[in-house]
Give the backbone structure.
Amino acid sequence: MSSEIEIEDLNAWFGEKHVLKDVSMEMEKNRITAIIGPSGCGKTTLIRCINRMHETVPEARVEGRILLNELDVYQEDPVSIRSRIGMVFQRPNPFPTMSVSENAVAGLKLRGTRDRSVLAEKAKEVLMAVGLWDEVRNELNKPGTSLSGGQQQRLCIARALAVEPEVILMDEPCSALDPVSTMRIEDLIYRLRENYTIIIVTHNMQQAARISDRTAFLYMGELIEYGPTKRLFEKPENELTERYISGRFG
Amino acid sequence: MGSREKFDEELREIYRMLMEMGDIAVSSISSAMEAVEKLDEEKAKVALQNNQKSFELMRGIEDKCTELLMLQAPVAGDLRRIITAMKVSIDLNRIVRYAKNISTLALDMVKEREGHFKKLVGLKGMKKTTIEMIEKAMKALFEKDKSLALEVYEEEKDVDALYEQIFRELITYMVEDNRKITRGVRYLLAGRYLERIADHACNIAEGAIYVATGERISPE
Ligand SMILES: Nc1ncnc2c1ncn2[C@@H]1O[C@H](COP(=O)(O)OP(=O)(O)O)[C@@H](O)[C@H]1O
Ligand SMILES: [Mg+2]
C-alpha cells in the first residue's frame, strides 16, 4: 500500500534558527516528488520532519501538521511512523558488522522477526526488487560494506523496503555515486513508484527533471514553487525558480 | 569567464545571427519584388545571392543550439529561447527561399521582354504587409512582446484577403484574353509565395509568444 502526505503550515527550528517557514504541500500517492533548492534551504529538514527524525535533534522543534493518509503523524508513535515512512540517506550506510543479507533485513529483525526462513525469503525478495539479487546471490554472507558504492546504496534501499513502508524518503541518494550507478538507482526509483510514494531530495536538476512527477523548489526555508515537473522546468512561474534552475543564482 | 556567462554569450550570438537572418529575409523580399515591379535583372540577382548566406546562418544557428542543448541542458526561458531560435531560423530561411522563387519569376518576366499589363497594386500591398509582419514578429521575439506578436496574426488575414482579391482579378484578365495567361500565372505565383511568407511570419510570432510566456498558440 502506498500513501499520500499532506503538509500543513509546517515550521521547523534548530534552537532559535527558523529553518522551515509555513510550508504547505501535498505529495501524491504513487508519485515521485522531487525537492530542490540551494544547500541549507531546508530540504533535509523538511523530509526529516515527515518521519519525525527532526525532533530527535536536541533543541529542534516542529510546528504544523503532517498527515499520512489523513492520519496526523505527530499524534502517532514515532517508531511506528518511521516504519511506515522509510528513509535512504546521501551516503550509503550499510551496517558495517553485518553481511549483505543481514543488512537487507536488519530492520525486520529489529522489529522482532526471528524466523530464519522468513528472513531469508524477505532478503531475497527485497534484493530482487532493487536489482541486486543476481549480483550478490553468491556473496550474501560477505560484509555489506564490501559491495561497490552503487550496490551499497541499492542495499540500503532494499533495507528500507524490507519493513514494507508506504513512503520512502531519499536524501540525495545518488550524490556519492558515479553516473552508471546513478542511472541504475534512478531506474530503480522510477520502478518503485508503482508501489510507493517517493520523496527525493536532489541537487541534480536533471535528475529531478528525469524521474519526478512533481517538483518543489525551496529557498531559505520557504516553498517558492511547487508543480508538475515538466511545467516547472519549461515555464517556472517564479523568477527565483527560473534563476535557480537555470544556474543563475547568487 | 564562468560557464553561465559563456552560455549567455553564446545565446546572444545565436540571436544576433537570427537578427541578421531577419534582415536578409526582409531585404530579399524587397529586392525580389522590386525586380518584379521594375523588371530589373540586377535586383533579382540580389535575392538569389542571399539564399546561400541565409542557409549558412541557419546551419550555424543549428550547430550552436545543438551544442548548448548538449553541453548545458538548458531549462525554462533558456530552453525556450534555444528551441525557438532553431525553429525561427528555419522559417526565415524558408522566407528567403520564397523570395528567391519570386526573383526567378522576375527573371522569367525579364526574358519575356514585355511590360506589365496591369498595375501591381495588390502585390505591392502584399509585399508591404508581409515585410511588416516579419519585422513585427522579430521585434516581438526580441522584446518578448506577446501583444505585438498577436498583431502579426491579424495582419495575416489582410494578406490572405489581398491574395484572394488578386486571384479573382487575374482570373478575369486571363479568361478575357488568353495571351495574358503566362504573365497572369506569374503574378499569381508571386502572390502565392508572398502568402506563404506571411504564414512563416506567423510561425515566428508563435515562437515569440512561446519565448515570452511559454504558451503554445495554435493558429485558428
Ligand atoms: N543539526 C543542526 N543544528 C543546527 N542547525 C542545523 C542543523 N542541521 C541543519 N541546520 C541548519 O538548518 C538549515 C537547513 O539545513 P538542511 O535542512 O540540512 O538544508 P539542505 O538539506 O537544504 O541543505 C541550514 O541553515 C543548516 O545550517
Ligand atoms: Mg541536505
Summary: Residues A 43-44, 171 surround magnesium ion (ligand 2) (CB under 6 Å).
